[in-house]
Amino acid sequence: MLNSNVVKKVISLVFIVLLLTACGIKGDDPPAAVLQAQSLLTEQLEVPVEEIKIVSMEEVEWTDSCFGLGGAAEICAAEITPGWRVFFDVNGKQYEVRSNKTGTIIRTP
Question: What are the phi and psi torsion angles at 81 (to 5°)?
């Protein structure tokens, strides 16, 4: 037979999980780098953040420090740079944003 304290703890845990789920709090919120990219797009397009939907996001290893977007007059370190590729939808139009792992450097193609 189960100890009544264990049963109470299990019931409490289930209740908390259900409550958090009902409130929309999930453990799979976008990483900070993706939220930074969304914020940058908000500023560039001058639209409210609510209008910018995340379509997809993936961790990538860029082949250079410019996230594959370096221009002819730009010097990019030829080193593997961990980061993110994110696609957003803004009023039916798609935008790609690339960043480093932490979102401190963000670029758009």
Answer: -120, 110
